[in-house]
Amino acid sequence: MLIDNILYLNMKIATYNVNGVNGRLPVLLRWLEETAPDIVCLQELKAPQEKFPVESLQAAGYNAIWHGQKSWNGVAILAHNTEIKETKRGLPGDPDDEQSRYIEAFVNGIVIGCLYLPNGNPAPGPKLEYKLRWFERLQAHATTLLKYGMPVVLAGDYNVMPTELDVYKPERWIDDALFRPEVRQAFKTLVEQGWTDAIRKIYPNETIYTFWDYFRNAYGRDAGLRIDHFLLSPDLDSRLLAAGVNRDVRGWEKSSDHAPVWIELADL
């Protein structure tokens, strides 16, 4: 990977599963205006390539690259008044995989991998098998990224609750594809390559959720899940200053069932 003009800056990076970028565009634009992240990873665009709202985002001050898909999936990276150099579109390892779940770019001296990992339900079955294969491909690509020796952030909706601390009433989720032992082990194996789970580094023992279902007043009861994660390469671990969840955004009218998650990185 040939990268030039490396520029390290203090920056705020966010990830947000928007659950339909066009239908929830007012929410997205309001959140961008109020919080002003430098880099944003979006998932579940649910829009074909030509329907991505690039003009609206540019008007808000954000450049964008995106990998769309009609009705399903879709990922994007936004950068506030900053150049984005796309480095990869689609996760390597399966040339027949047509689902739009991974996009990667170089922004302000950091490689940003934006991902939307498969849900895997119903489990067991073909969807869980696809999820585990996708995890294996992610593990392989993550190893390659670490070998480059550059700062890397892998951010997005991983569709996994790593521990019981990350799920409301874990006993109810034992057989779900987001919490099955083999899925949690796949996430653990990925992290043990040397990645830092940013939220858990800042909040090692606190209950932190990033998703609340639309049903049964889950948000009001705080019956949530932590499935949106930041994994940081070893050279970014010491630069992590802060992390959090914009929980209130989940309560906005016509909002996604996810809330934005963010980290702040210090300059070198």
TrEMBL record:
Pfam families on file: Exo_endo_phos
Family: Belongs to the DNA repair enzymes AP/ExoA family.
Matches recorded under PANTHER family: EXODEOXYRIBONUCLEASE III (PTHR43250:SF1)
Binding residue positions for Mg(2+): N17, E44, D157, N159, D257, H258
Keywords in alphabetical order: Hydrolase, Magnesium, Manganese, Metal-binding
GO molecular function (one): metal ion binding
Enzyme class, spelled out: hydrolase
SUPFAM superfamilies documented for this protein: DNase I-like (SSF56219)
Site (Transition state stabilizer): N159
Protein's organism: Arcticibacter svalbardensis MN12-7
CDD domains recorded: ExoIII-like_AP-endo
Entry's EC annotation: 3.1.11.2
Cofactor: Mg(2+); Mn(2+)
Gene3D superfamilies for this protein: Endonuclease/exonuclease/phosphatase
Endonuclease/exonuclease/phosphatase domain segment(s): 14-258
Protein known as: Exodeoxyribonuclease III
Co-factor binding comment: Probably binds two magnesium or manganese ions per subunit.
Biological process, per Gene Ontology: DNA repair
Entry-linked PROSITE patterns: AP_NUCLEASE_F1_1, AP_NUCLEASE_F1_4
